[in-house]
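Subject: two folds for Thursday's group meeting

Dear M.,

Sorry for the delay on this. The cluster queue was jammed most of the week, so I only got both jobs back this morning. I'm pasting them in the order they finished. Each block is the input sequence followed by the predicted structure tokens. Could you check whether the formatting survives your parser before we put anything on slides? The first protein is the one we discussed after the seminar.
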Amino acid sequence: MDTYDKKADLAGPGVSTYEKVAEILPDDYQPILNPKDRMKALFKIKNFIEENLCKELGLFMVQVPLIVTEESGVNDYLDRDGSRTPIEFKAGLGIEKRLNAQVVQAATKWKRPALKQYLCDVGEGINTDMRAVRKDYFLDHDHSSYVDQWDWEKVIRAEDRNLDTLKSTVEKIWKVIYEAGQMVQKDFPALATDKFPPIPEKLKFLHAEEILEMYPDLPRKQRETKVIQEVANAIFIIGIGYTLDDGYPHEMRAADYDDWISPTIEKNGKQMHGLNGDILVWNPVTKRRHELTSMGIRVTKETLVQQLKETGQEHFLELPYHKMILNDEIPLSIGGGIGQSRTYMYLLRTAHLGEVSVTIWPDQLKEICAPRNIHVLQ
């Protein structure tokens, strides 16, 4: 595998072709639930996850912005190469200088100052029913320009900034997702089909360096596919963003929210880094890997400076959000985003994101889907 392939695989979803999508989608698909029952089941899952995520993590539901100002610096740029830019427009009639507004791509950075706004104490946090738009996505079976997430954030102490905190939080999140799956199968028994294996009750934790060691010649997405096929069908990958032994990060991760630079695991004389990661699952319907959530312990003022220096983005330190971190004006925290539609797709055994969310899809995609019994909602 040449280095170009590895490098090209680092910046999130990337660009594919609809010929490749046609190869990916199953030819023998039969939806288990009709659109009406699917929506009823979906909202049972939504209510269950929101209630129990708050209970397990000590959160409460809050309002979340759809738009922010460019100058605030709180919009999420998703990665560090600048390839996925937000929708921008001027807002505010009747004022001399109209506001430079941006549609959020995620609420990742907004949530940390929001902890202070909502008066959260240590061990307490917020959860949101977040909506966003990501215009620079290739639209396929599990990527959409419309994004719905449970974006959550929780106040922690300095001594909580460790892998034990990260892992215990991940286990609580997976417990809620697993139990949501058990609940919806009980209420909609057709979902408990033996056509597909059961949802794994436990996650396997692996560091990105360990996965690279297993599959040193494969690019990131192929490594992820192999490990969830061969090691465990539900995993949490630790340490996404720091440069690995092959000279590349597992995936490029923005430098100003998750802490991916702090040293953590030492194994066989090798120092590994990162207090963040992703939950990935094997979807037996699509026969593909799916990322359900990205999360992490957030940067301190020291690791913020280190990571921005590493990525050549030190000019961000002049933005209000970054200054709040530098001046200790907002709390230390852990947080993440759980993809709602991805989770519904996984638990409801659907082949396409468009079966559980209403958004726009190109005609090319709909023409590929229709002969395969995949009918996207419009």
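Second protein, same layout:
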Amino acid sequence: MGRFRDALAAPGLGTIAEVKRRSPSAGDLRPDADPARLAAQFANAGAAAISILVDERFGGSLEDLRAARAATTAPLLAKGFFTEELDLLKLKVAGAEAALVILRDVDDQRAAALLSYAHELGIETLVEAHDANDLHRAVALGAEVIGVNARDLATFELDRGKQLELVARLRGHDAVVVAESGVHTRAQGAAAELAGADAVLVGSALMQAADPAAKLRELSSRPLVKVCGLTRPDDVDAAVEAGADMLGFILAEHSPRRAPGVLPVPDDRLSVAVFVGEAEEAGADLVQLYQREEGRVRGRDAVLLRAGEPVAYVVDLPWAEPDPLHLQRAAVREGRVMLAGRLGPDNVREAVRAVSPWAVDAASQLESEPGIKDHDKVRAFVAAAR
């Protein structure tokens, strides 16, 4: 275990914040980026580690790494195309804790030699995979930190679906898993987290932001906000515009908020299909499944499922009943908690303070009538939850 791996393995979703002036796919991002200033700002904004592009194709150099090292004690990852032992030695001398090894660029023998030499030097590695074959190689090499890149470095195309599928395959392995590329919103980070990623590496989204440190705080902030009981495209649009991360569609038979189906949701947010008793295929990113309870629309609590696997626990109120100990009950629940139960703009802030949930979920308190959202209340709820 090293400082880099330990930082990424800490509870919750870690972020590797990247300093890069340009990218071959997007061109100039921030030509005047000051690596020392950004590294210090990212560390203060809660980055688990900081990635520094040292390759000239990205407008970087070893000097950038030295400048960042002088400005922060946070773990530094050097990124570039490294294939020789001498590359790693230079990075170590310039202050890197870890170096990128891209499996597409080296065969197994070369990769094993680099990992062995890095270990001797006392420098960690982020071993990057792009496909199932790379993933198999990374595991066989005993890589302690595996990065799964959504971007194909040959075509520059992004495929987040394939990335998340590969991340999910690493569940149960000892390696720390990093989802690289394609994270521009909190929901995209959460999608990687729920697939099994320990951390996300974010570069372009930060470099293109007016305030990179504020963008980093935004991406890693919790709770996530879910607006549920949506039945109309207008209301979906309002929730997205307000900044909701998850959009919920109730498909339970007797609910007064039953939706016609899972409505279209932008691909930078997460859709959630809500069922009671038994889930069906609905084309949503996630499923929220309540138990059935005789004489009621639903049972009390639910599980949040991704590809059939439980990824969070929904702590709710009984149907149409209060519970004065609701928040205390949620606060002691371990793991990821989505807090639900008559939350609205007036009480969500207090609830977040009491419980520190992973997500908050509101439906009935944001309506003008069942299934019809009051857009002012939706905006107020998302703002208060933040």
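Two things I noticed about the second structure. The longest strand covers residues 270-276. Residues 81 and 87 are 9 Å apart (CA to CA).

Cheers,
T.
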